[in-house]
């Protein structure tokens, strides 16, 4: 733990962590040091000079973003000299910046505009420079206008910090600008269109491509929520105007890189208004689906469920919320069916997702060693992209990375050690390497690994593990037992699922007590009730199929009854992310048409069956979260039958999002570039 120091800023004595820069130290006391180039979470570069401060005992002003706070330091942030310097900097920047604040989309939230106002600058006193850089707007996601760029370098650093390395500087003086490799448009580069650069940009140089005349920042109603499109469960901020989603940003604090969302989470909201959206109940009449009333649809479904009883099956995506899962479990019980399972069973057993501890207490940002076992997170394929970005950020901040995988991984490029082969065997060898170095381990582990002969790479891995104070092990669910064994020595381990609430639905009690998902799909059921978007395009073997979803998917087209559910931005609830943290989703907009949340529909069906189910409360969710097994030594083996292609499954369960939004352009563009 770093030492706490005391210093004085603008006459106020404050406490700060040793090594903290002056901008962050001042912020802890509510003191703002003006800055344009500083980006919290990355190393300061002192490009703009706006953060100059004076320090007692030093003749020249110091740069706030690069100067470390020291014990006893006396700092002045508002002296006449530094204020004059800051005004000069803003004046100079304005000479190279368009003065169209009246119509600029970023008006009101533009840092440059705010500082110009603070220093009473309406226009520059310098000779205006010529503009005329070409605008990059050939993609449907991000618009780049170099004329607005102030060369703060925030976009370059956030792109570099998270490992994408798309942007860099070119040229000098007034001809300098930020470019991609060989100055190609974004769509011809390796850009993932995550939009982190948009969040980092303090002006109008980088902006969502569709933001023009969709409202000013102060007109938006902002809602904090969580993305449900993959196992990361990223925090998001949803901006709405007049009941429509205008944009989605990462859920991190403004001007930081501590949060990340991928293109799916940022730009996929178009699907809410796609042509395939289901806005009213439907039933099959002849060979066609026709609209009907909720009463009619509910009565049909309830009648079929009551008649089928134990021959009824319920399958659901693991992307539903905890409250939905609790109601679903009660509905299945009401019709006396034990056939209840989710897509989580395709890639995990229940025990692997019942982690006994919340890794939020050992956050990834404090880890000094990260082990990835059987995982291949990638921002480019959007397989757990936020995990990929978080790991790369942590590596850039000094942490070590060990990759253990039977195949090739992109993230191995930043690893201190990459070991290719049988993952469970390698983990056992690392554990034996720790034992051979004299580390204290459980006695049963010593006996279990007595015959294991660690490789040279495994010994290196053991040395890195022993040197770490806070190691975190992330694994595929099939390798959780082997990974958790290492956490018995020290650190923590977590299985990372493909879907956002796979951990939550299992903790809520949906564990596949009767027939499994695969059995219900392949062996046939009297009635099959399918909830959410599933990786199914062909109708399963069933006499009667109910599909409850927000979009008319290929599976829904083959259903006997379709029940319109709300999209995730249209409902509230909670999930449990892969770190074990309980996260809240808040409804940003009202459901389209007659759509209702999953649990509202399930409660209505249950009532028609004869069971009155109440809306789950926070206490019900928290009660379900309390039951957690203890970690004990398990065999160093990979669990069989849980192999799925993560990219294919993510695309499958998000087919409506992709095909019903501008993400379809991205998918087709990537296929074209790959020569598919």
Please tell me about this protein's structure.
- It contains 21 helices and 26 strands.
- 28% of the residues lie in helices and 18% in strands.
- Strands 14-13-24-23-22-15-16 form a 7-stranded mixed β-sheet, sandwiched between helices. The chain has a 5-stranded mixed β-sheet with strand order 2-1-5-3-4.
- It is of the alpha/beta class.
- The two termini are 51 Å apart.
- β17 (369-373), α9 and β18 form a beta-alpha-beta unit.
- The chain has 4 domains: 4-94, Ubiquitin-like (UB roll) (Roll); 111-273, Alpha-Beta Plaits, CATH 3.30.70; 282-350 and 502-567 and 593-626, Rossmann fold (3-Layer(aba) Sandwich), CATH 3.40.50.740; 352-495, 3-Layer(aba) Sandwich (Dimethylsulfoxide Reductase, domain 2), CATH 3.40.228.
What is the tally of beta strands? 26
In CATH, the architecture of the largest domain is 3-Layer(aba) Sandwich
Helix and strand content put the structural class at: alpha/beta
Q: In the residues, how many domains can be counted?
A: 4
Helical run tally: 21
CATH class bucket of the largest domain: Alpha Beta
The end-to-end span amounts to 51 Å
Please give the order of strands in the largest beta sheet: 14-13-24-23-22-15-16
What is the average per-residue confidence, as pLDDT, rounded to a whole number? 92
CATH topology of the largest domain: Rossmann fold
- Tell me the radius of gyration: 27 Å
Strand content: 15-25%
Q: What is the makeup of the main sheet?
A: 7 strands, mixed
Enumerate the spans where pLDDT stays under 50 for 5 or more consecutive residues: none
**Helical amount among residues, as a percent range?**
25-40%
Overall form: globular
